Amino acid sequence: MAQTNSTTALAQADKTASDCMPRPPVSEIIARRISRRQALGGIAAAGLLSLTTARPAFGQARSSLNFTEIAHGYDTNFHVPKEHQPQILIRWGDPLFPDAPAFDPLRQTATAQSRQFGYNNDFVAFLPLPHPAGRADHGLLCVNHEFTNADLMFPEIANDAGEPVLSAEQVDTEMAAHGHSIIEIRQRGGKWETVLDSPFNRRITTLETEMHLTGPAAGHARLKTAADPEGRKVIGTLNNCAGGVTPWGTVLIAEENFHAYFAGDPDRTAEAENHKQYGMRNKPRFQWGRYHDRFDLEKTPNEPNRFGWIVEIDPYNPRHIPQKHTALGRFKHEGATTAITPDGRVAVYSGDDERFEYLYRFLSDGRFDPENRSQNMRLLQSGTLSVARFDADGTLQWLPLVWGEGPLTPENGFASQADILIETRRAADLLGATPMDRPEDVETNPVSGTVFVMLTNNTKRKAGDIHAANPRAHNRHGHILELIPPGGTGARADHGAATYQWEILLKAGDPANIEDDAAYHADISSHGWLSNPDNCAFDHRGRLWIATDGAPRSGFADGLWACDVDGPGRALTRHFLRTPRGAELCGPCFTPDDRTLFVAVQHPGAEPGSDFRTPSTRWPDFTDDMPPRPAIVAVTAGGRPIGNPHMG
Ligand code: FEO
Ligand code: CA
Ligand code: CA
User: Fold this and answer.
1) Å from CA of 107 to ligand 2 middle
2) Is the separation of the CB atoms in 29 and 493 below 8 Å?
3) Do residues 625 and 86 lie in contact, with contact meaning Cβ atoms separated by under 8 Å?
4) What does the pLDDT average to over 366-382?
5) Which atom of ligand 1 is nearest to the CA of 242?
6) Per the domain annotation, does 271 fall within a domain?
7) pLDDT tens for residues 64-116?
8) Cis peptide before 620 (omega within 30 of 0)
């Protein structure tokens, strides 16, 4: 009986969330959001009540999502709600080509790795085949490989062995395990499979893939090296975290923590202040500089300037040369999310993931033309980069980083726009942008047109530094902001406007712990709270799916939580998925019919005392001869929508 009522309510919710809903005028939207914002002030206290009086059935009725919520937990396996089925689609080391060597973890080589799926899958995109009017059950899976864990990859590298020196072959294997994979996949009889003989399959690696620089900094003296005297060609991409898909069917991948790969003392270079501003301290996490001079900044001082960009790849053309677009700025790009303005320009949102760094928006000069793909592929070569200033009155100002304007002049060391783009952080400092609590992924709600920003944590924020948009000192759990462009909902939202509104969707943490000062919908269950939002995705009904990186510090595994962002279930997060121990969850990505959810399980088994020989989990193979393997999981619900298994 209860299920019948619930199904009826859900059917109604589905209808109201559709793209066909009448669009209220912007004044009404803003009034509605401000009233919600005022209501949020009472949510933390209300949440305390909900946990002491446990009302899960009431909470479920308010949410448009009707899956059976899973419990917080921490174990060796992967968990989804009982109505859903997980399928391991592809793992580290799986072949991408018919002639690729079978995976042998005891004898891995760089040559083999270059033909196999890479390590630490992060961003995931599904691009239907054929382009542009493809299907939801056949397409290209595009996956970032952010970084490597040597002690889980190589049998010789023990977790407790201090800092063992990697061999040249191991370093090259790491470089070949970084980058990106493109593989054709299709669904048959409800199961997904990879197509090994596809002409689209491709590995892009840090070891050998040539890329071109575009935009105002391409060819600049500060990007030239002995290997590339023109300053226009780079080998490889680094630390590719999140990303995005453009409206013309290319993939954008972000270069995040590039500093971790460069050995050498910045003070012995002419780029000392620049390199130090991006975190280079002659303490690289990786040993690549031992064997490759380009990763020793004393030997190749400009090489770090060739990383930290957004890279565009055309997965439909396996010979496409990836493009590093300097017009989008150089920082620790978490991701890149595109939106089209009402006048056809392309906006790209990107966070700089470090404590007290900023949120950016690029706006193209040219306009998107659905009939002219080759022209669209030049849109990210020129435009205006801006940085966000969040004001306490709920407005957001986009501050343009334009050479010659305000403090961005030769007097401050900027001789051209190229200097501003190479030293984006310093330029943004001078403009008075708002220092944020580590901006991670950014996504746009396809229904409302508003923009959501994951702020993962910032334990260094002091009480004297708190700010309306970053309202907690010692922010352990992170929070989520909603940015509201003017103009209207959906495609009417003006992603080119200079001023937006903003508000807080939720403050993560435990609503039962008053010290956390958390804020959610009042009906959240005791498993619905989350910590450290990182990646995120929207389904096509406009529900937000939040992946975490850091929940184990609160005693439970990282995973996925989902909530409505409009209507009576706003900020009522519900726990959907849990990773095996040591892992974080990345890349949530829906097929266009919302019937499959792809997720990336990154670094399973990465925790103290766990290594190749004695890992804390052997997910997903669970055989004694196999270490844990990062893998992509395809989650389905018997042909029904993910998160709504109780409706057709
Ligand atoms: Fe690669 Fe900021 O996460
Ligand atoms: Ca991330
Ligand atoms: Ca992460």
Assistant:
1) 30
2) no
3) no
4) 97
5) 1
6) no
7) 999 999 999 999 999 999 999 999 999 999 999 999 999 999 999 999 999 99
8) yes
Question: How far, in Å, are 92, 139, 198, 207, 593 from residue 95 at the CA level?
Answer: 9, 18, 12, 18, 28
How close is the Cα of 242 to the center of ligand 2, in Å? 6
The predicted model gives 565-573 an average pLDDT of 97
Question: What token pair was written down for 332?
Answer: 């620790």
Which residue's entry shows tokens 């109604």?
12
249: nearest Cα among 522, 634, 631, 592: 592
Q: Is the CB of 494 under 6 A from ligand 1?
A: no
User: Using CA atoms, how far apart are residues 71 and 554, in angstroms rounded to an integer?
Assistant: 14
CA-nearest of 608, 641, 613 to 627 is 613
Nearest ligand to residue 549 Cα: 3
Atom of ligand 1 nearest to the CA of 438: 2
Q: Is there an atom of ligand 1 within 6 Å of 440 CB?
A: yes
Atom of ligand 1 nearest to the CA of 256: 1
What is the enclosing helix (H) or strand (E) of 212?
strand 210-214
Average pLDDT, the chain: 91
Compute the distance from residue 241 Cα to the ligand 3 centre, in Å: 7
Alpha helices in 264-325 (DSSP H): 272-277
Evaluate whether residue 38 is within a structural domain.
no
Give CA–CA dist 519/525, Å, rounded: 13
Distance CA 479, CA 506 (A): 6
Greatest pairwise CA separation for the chain in angstroms: 74
CB under 8 Å to 556, separation ≥6 — which residues?
72, 73, 74, 578
The helix/strand/coil state of 243 is: strand
Q: What angle do CA 324, 326, 331 make, to 5 degrees?
A: 95
* Residue whose CA is at the smallest distance from ligand 1 atom 1: 241
CB distance 183 to 193 below 8 Å? no
Confidence of residue 60 (pLDDT cuts 50, 70, 90): low
Range of the domain at 193: 5-32+44-256+308-636
CB 264, CB 282: distance < 8 Å: yes
Write down the H helix ranges in 194-271: none
The 10s digit of each residue's pLDDT in 111-120 is: 999 999 999 9
Q: Percentage of residues in the chain with pLDDT exceeding 70?
A: 90
The helix/strand/coil state of 124 is strand
CB contact set of 341 (below 8 Å; sequence gap of 6+): 347, 363, 494, 495, 496
In a domain? residue 37: no
**Residue whose token pair is 């909603």:** 482
The reply to whether ligand 1 has any atom less than 6 angstroms from the CB of 146 is: yes
Ligand 1 centre from 249 Cα, in Å?
A: 24
Establish if 226 belongs to a structural domain.
Answer: yes
- CA atoms lying within 13 Å on the CB side of residue 251: 31
Answer positive or negative: Cα dihedral of 89, 92, 93, 99: positive
Q: Cβ neighbours of residue 223 under 8 Å, at least 6 residues apart?
A: 213, 217, 231, 232, 302, 305, 306, 422
Residue 232 neighbours by CB under 8 Å, 6+ apart: 212, 213, 218, 219, 223
Bridge partner list, 337: 349
Helix (H, G, I), strand (E, B) or coil at 419: helix
- Closest atom of ligand 1 relative to the 239 alpha carbon: 1
Cβ atoms of residues 239 and 258 within 8 Å: yes
Are the C-beta atoms of residues 529 and 506 closer than 8 Å to each other? no
The pair of three-digit structure tokens given for residue 294, joined into one six-digit string:
């380009």
Query: How many structural domains comprise the chain?
Result: 1
